Amino acid sequence: MNLNTTVTVDEEKSLARVALAGGLNTDTAPAFEERLQQVIDAGHQLMVLDMKDLDYISSAGLRVIFKAAKQVRADGRSLAAANRKPHIDKVFEILKALPDMTVFANDQELDDYLDTMQQRTKSD
Amino acid sequence: MSKSITTRLIALLTLSTVSIVGLAMWLDYRLSRDELLQQLHAQSEQTVTTAIVDMENWLEGVESSTLLLGRILQQRDYSTPGLKQMLKDIVENNDDIFGSAIALNPDLFDIPLGFAHYYFRRDGILREADLALEENNYQQQRWYMDSVAAGKPIWVEPYFDVGGAKVLMTTYAVPVYRVDDAGVRSLYGVVTADVTLQELRQYLQRLQLGANGQSVLLSREGLVLSAKDDANLMRHYSEINNPEAPYWANLLQKVLVGQTISRQRQCTDIPGSCSVHMGTLNTGWPLVLMYSDNELLAPLHDHQIKTAITGLLTLLLMVLAVYFVTRRITAPLAALSAATRDISQGKLDTPLPAPKGEDEVATLIQSFKAMNHNLKTYIADLETVTASRSRLEGELAAAREIQMAMLPGGGETLAAQDIFQLWARVTPAKTVGGDLYSYQIVDGKLLLALGDVSDKGVPAALFMARAISLIQQLSGPDVPAQEAMSAVNDMLTQGNENCMFVTLFLGVLNLKNMVLSFASAGDAVPVLLRNGAVYPNTASSGPALGLASGLTFPVNTLQLQTGDRLAIYTDGIEEAFNIEGTMFGQERISTELLETVSQPVDVAGKHMFQAISDFANGAAQSDDITLMLLELTEPAENWTSEFNPKAEMPAQVAQWLQQSLESASVNRDNIGEFLLVAEEIVTNIYKYAGLAPQDSFTINLEVSDQRILLEVADRGKPFNPLTDAQQSPLGADIENAVVGGFGIHLITSMTEHQSYRRQGQENILLVEKIIKNTD
């Protein structure tokens, strides 16, 4: 099993998009954890885990995401997930994992959300 | 309290009688009061009249005597002693007269002082006085002068007789005239008779005018002749009680002209009204009688009080009488009421009051007694019946348990083997029933039985017990089904006077070649589902068992294939009725079986029972229902491999599993989930089993079209991941979430069964995932 992580940053919106492709299991989790930590340290307001191409997630992978979510929340920032595949969704559901984590069903939702946030910050 | 009939009766009766009697008494009092009043008035009038008449008589007597004396003197001459003597005789013999005097006209005689002699009575002794003395000479006395002036007999105004008796008196003076030969009338003298005021007063006192009543006698000119208070004697009435003088004056005027007056006015000295009667005596003296009406009516008041007391006592006695009588009569009613209240609350042994007499209350009590007695009897009977029914139900419940225990699985069973799955269930219509099923796996043969005893309930259950015992004993791996059938039939026919019978299916499935040979008694044939359709049935059967011995049964043979499903059932399914009276019917059965053919046998079987129940829609189950489903399955595939605990191990395991599962044609989703489960399991072992790198652990994988079975055995320290691994709570939000500890959740939620055992030095974890299509 392999995992490819691609990070796209939008400085203007303080957004970091982390795309996962492949499977997040005991093997691939450690490397992913390192990469994710780098993104967190960059200090973006919002980090989105794009799971469009994620086929597999085990408890090891969930652990990494939990840890990351807690860390950014403490900072006042947020970690969100997007484009979860059905069986990935199922795992989250079974474990009732991170019920308060923002989940975008598709890219459109993400874009709408970003627009709203932008307007909000503009009017502040 | 006011709700009691006793109280109400007493109150109402008392009220009524008090009102009625009270009214009567009051009316009586009013009427008698008027009468009494009249009487009293009449009485008082009478007394007054009598007294006055007496007085008048007396005064008239005085007048007559004096007039007589006068006439005597008119005609006769007497010498002075003769005159004195005559005078003395008169006074002495006439108690009515206090004193009497003869006074001669001094002009007729030569004596300047005149001649007047007087006799009077004092203290019973006769005395005399000479009125012709120089001091208080009679000629200057009013009695002489007024009578002479009047020229006729008069009663003189009262005076104090200084010269004579020295008392207050009034005098009847009669002037005496003589006519001489020439016809000239001249005064001869005056004769008098005296009446003391005290005497007058004594008469008046007889009038009984009451303590506050008084009589006042006035002279013609209004001087008081007699009054209550002696101090008022001789005074003019106008001097007394000045404010009222005009009032009296007015009255007096009327009286003096002869009128009698009766008035009522406010008493002056005492409260209340007073009656005043005024008239004149024949002497011309006004007489005023006053009395307090209250005093007059004193007897009336006494009467009133007596009446009132009598009345009250009467009423009181009546109230008491009403009270006691009512209480007495209604007491049993009150007692009955209290007793029945207790009885109504279930205390059936409460004593009822004793009925007295034969009135309605007594009848009521007796009826109640009878009713109570009957009630107790009924309840006792009911209790007996209920108790015996409870006992019976208890026994039936116990019987049901025993009967169910006779069946494999206790009434429902699921047997899963390598090449077949078997499910069966019996639902009796009543507590116990007559349906049965049985199976045995012996020597590579699966022995099947499914039967239906005639009727249902306890008789069928007893016959069923016989039948199933015989079946289990008489069938065997080497006993052909039809022979077993004959043997069972012969045994059942014995001692079966009741002619119970059973329809039965006996089958023997050769597990090696999948040939099913079976016999059927009474048309109990199986239904074969193959390739999604109902396979036509060509089995032949014999008669039902238990009625005739020595029967033979045809044998049927069926070659079964993997994937075939056999359904055997009793007619209870077909003949299940709904509330409209429609049968479930063979068609519905076939439809149900086909609909569920790709589901595991237990799921399909339960579905059928649910469908029957839904169809019945509340109608009572009319017959025992039994269903058996047998499915021939592909034998499972098996893989085993060993792994060492190193970093690449999870990946290795995943790869091996994926290949195997794909080769067994397991679908992608199941593979994905199973890989997740496996990863969690082996990761746990890697982390916690404490294995050295050179140690290894074994994974055994078994896949059939029903399920995937994974067994992992390791020689690590004792560790049950199901209980010993960290399990974090689910659903916590980001802040409170615990990182890690979710592996076990994933394992338990993605597999249907998990079990752990420690065998020797090994931990053995077994998980099973059902992959057959399930709803």
CATH superfamily of chain A: STAS domain
- The shape of chain B, in one word, is rod-shaped
Using the alpha-carbon principal axes, give the shape of chain A: globular
Distance between the termini of chain A: 46 Å
Individual helix count of chain A: 4
Number of strands of chain B: 28
Quickly describe the structure.
Chain A has helices spanning 29-41, 59-75, 86-94, 107-123, and strands at residues 3-10, 15-24, 46-57, 78-82, 102-104.
Report what the structure shows.
The complex is a heterodimer of chains A (124) and B (775). Chain A is of the alpha/beta class and 124 residues long. Chain A has one domain: Transcription Regulator spoIIAA. Helix content of chain A is 45%, strand content 31%. Chain A has a five-stranded mixed sheet with strand order 1-2-3-4-5, sandwiched between helices. In chain A, helix 3 links the parallel strand 4 (78-82) and strand 5. The mean pLDDT of chain A is 86. In chain B, strand 13 and strand 14 (420-427) form a beta hairpin. The mean pLDDT of chain B is 86. Chain B folds into four domains: 42-187, PAS domain (Beta-Lactamase), CATH 3.30.450.20; 209-296, Beta-Lactamase (2-Layer Sandwich); 407-632, PPM-type phosphatase domain (Phosphatase 2c, domain 1); 637-770, Heat Shock Protein 90, CATH 3.30.565. In chain B, strands 1, 2, 3, 4, 5, 6 and 7 form a seven-stranded antiparallel sheet that branches. Chain B is α+β, with helices and mostly antiparallel strands and 775 residues long. In chain B, helix 7 runs parallel beside helix 8 (360-406) and helix 14 runs antiparallel to helix 15.
Task: Supply the key terms.
heterodimer; A: 124 residues; alpha/beta; Transcription Regulator spoIIAA; 5 strands; 31% strand; B: 775 residues; alpha+beta; Beta-Lactamase; Phosphatase 2c, domain 1; seven-stranded antiparallel beta sheet; 17 helices; 24% strand; rod-shaped
